[in-house]
Amino acid sequence: MRSFGIENIFSEDDYLYLKNYIYNNINTASDFIYTEYYGRWWNIVELDDRINTFIMEAVRKHLGDNLVIAFNQCIKYQKIGDCIPKLEPHTDHFYNDYTLDITIDTTLNWPLEIEGQYLSCSNNSGIFLDGNNENHSRPEYPGSDNDYMVMLYVNLVDQNSDILNKINAMKGLSENTRKMLLSRMIPRQHKKGAE
Ligand SMILES: [Fe+2]
Question: Which of 44, 92, 124, 173 is the most exposed place for a label (fewest CB within 10 A)?
Fold first, then answer.
């Protein structure tokens, strides 16, 4: 299996800085929207220089020098009404080489199952997931109304990858155009606050 997990992937200082940064995104971003199908809020989040630096240190330590960050998804799994968070067995169809799944803050023991092996998602852990090649899912959601799991998914691509040009072109689009495109990436969603 090419996927693997790391506990306490960042120093305590860096982890707390990242957690604060992610909660600031969750609390202030206008495009943080709930996707009913997955039972999760999400948006694309830009990180600052300090965070990019310590994430890339971890990436180089565990995967070598070839990968760079393409884009990041901020995710908050949460039960809302009849919408139960879920991740059914699948492989990804991203143009990335690895996704680093960082657990920011969770009340749950809700591991990621990859090719039959369970990798835990505890605070300040990271899973380097080869999601294009290795089937992954989560078991039935164990949470109640008060539970949640906040994640940062860092999508890593080869530094010479053609996808970087496409992503940078998308970042150059106007905010409204970008939001319109992203809002159609996943079916059935509603705006924060709307039920
Ligand atoms: Fe996936």
Answer: 173
Compute, in angstroms, the gap from residue 140 CA to the centroid of ligand 1: 16
**Would you say residue 195 lies in a domain?**
no
CA of 186 to the centre of ligand 1 (A): 13
Q: How many domains does the chain have?
A: 1
Both tokens assigned to 88: 């059914």
For the stretch 48-85, pLDDT in tens is: 999 999 999 999 999 999 999 988 999 999 999 999 99
Distance 134 CA to ligand 1 centre (A): 9
For residues 55-65, one letter each, b for 16 or more C-beta atoms within 10 angstroms of the residue's C-beta and e for the rest, the string is bbebbeeebee
Q: What CATH number has the domain bearing residue 47?
A: 2.60.120.620
Ligand 1 centroid from CA 127, angstroms? 12
Domain membership of residue 189 (yes or no) is: no
Residue 195 — pLDDT band, cuts 50, 70, 90? Answer: very low
Instruction: Say how many Å lie between the CA of residue 99 and the centre of ligand 1.
Output: 9
Q: What is the pLDDT of residues 100-110, one digit of tens each?
A: 999 999 999 99
Q: What is the pTM of this model?
A: 0.88
Distance in angstroms (rounded) separating the CA atoms of residues 185 and 73: 13
Range of the domain at 51: 4-183
Phi, then psi, of 78 in degrees rounded to 5: -160, 140
